[in-house]
Amino acid sequence: MKNKFSWYSPLTQNEVDEAWDAGILTVDANVLLDLYRYHEGTRDSLISSIEKLKCAKWLSAQTAEEFFRNRKKSILSSRKTFKEAQDEIDKLKAKATEVTQALKSNRLVPSSITEKLSKDSDELLLEAAKAIEEEIKKHPDFLDDDPILEKLYGIFANSIGDDFSEADKKTHTKTAEERKNKKIPPGYMDKDKDGDRSYGDYFFWRQVLDHAKAQAKPVIIVTSEKKEDWWEIISGQTIGPRYELLKEAYEVTGKKALIYQTDRFLSYALERLGEKKNEKAVAEISEISELRYAGNAVRKTTQTCSISTSTNNVGELSVILGRPVRNFTGSGHFSPQMAKPPRLEVSLIKGPSGIPMYKLGGGTGTVFDFNLHIKATDNTELLPEGLYVFEYQAMVE
């Protein structure tokens, strides 16, 4: 039994050492794209760990293609988060002013209390706004000068796999479609993506296994994926890689595969290198990955407008959530564009049964789009799948 199911047996120390010291290390596209989303310390820790490991570093053609196709979008997205943070500070300022004005009109409340509250809140919010401004100034302009890209060029120099031939691509596309319909991992959770994008995970997987087989070496796969078509998830807890993936990797390559999420990989890499644990970096990687996982859970978003002008946009944003998550974001658009970035008010008017206590917010970083965010207040609870309908009003003051 042990010999027949050896792919399922825990790795021996010799197998672990062989993979980390003489195997092949490869990553998916989001592992690279996330480098633009991390703070400098986290980014440097991950890149440095990859550089120092003894094993060979290699990228699939699928990973390289997705990285270069989405690189600029990731850079611009990271900039947008600063604007969203500034919007949140502005909303707090407006709310603080509203509260202090209400207290001032209450004659039973001593004026000294409202004066102190107003003064302290103004100072704290001003300090926060200045801190965000400083972070914006320090944040590199990766579109103009990109040291991350130069590092990646060095790490993966002459280590990029070839894409499928036209004939092989047709064959693998057919296989990917069949696997998707039969829910064979990986990639079937991407069935709602457009065109070849729904086959991306399988193409990546196939190219990695083909390369590992040709090199006759074990492979370490680092992925940012958190979905069930990569991981065995029981009662909301991730147990490990899907057994189908472990089995297929062994059958194709003759070696056991090691599959890690990015945060777990960094922890193990630092340990292998004999370096100090970087809990802050690991936590940030986990948080970024969780945010993407929540975004991927959104199956469909529709928007209707009752008022649509350059100064006032009122409507509903409907989001279909495909699986339970702790938080998710829905995005809408302004047509015509607003005269300037508006103030946004949002409420949840309809949702599936069993919604736990939640926090709701929104942000407008531009004059042409906006985001609505909902998060379970208790981190141990999940927002149930189903239809969520948000009512919003965007106003230019």
From TrEMBL:
Whether Coiled coil counts among this entry's keywords is yes
| Extent of the signal sequence | none
The record ties this protein, via InterPro entries, to: PIN_8
Residues in coiled coil: 75-102
Highest taxon of the source? Bacteria
Question: What segments bear the compositional bias annotation Basic and acidic residues?
Answer: 168-180
Name recorded for this polypeptide: DUF4935 domain-containing protein
Domain spans labelled PIN like? 26-245
Q: Give the organism the record lists.
A: Comamonas denitrificans
The ranges of region (Disordered) come to 168-193
Q: Which UniProt keywords apply?
A: Coiled coil
Q: What is the lineage of its organism?
A: Bacteria, Pseudomonadati, Pseudomonadota, Betaproteobacteria, Burkholderiales
Cross-referenced Pfam families: PIN_8 (PF18476)
> Does the keyword section mention Coiled coil?
yes
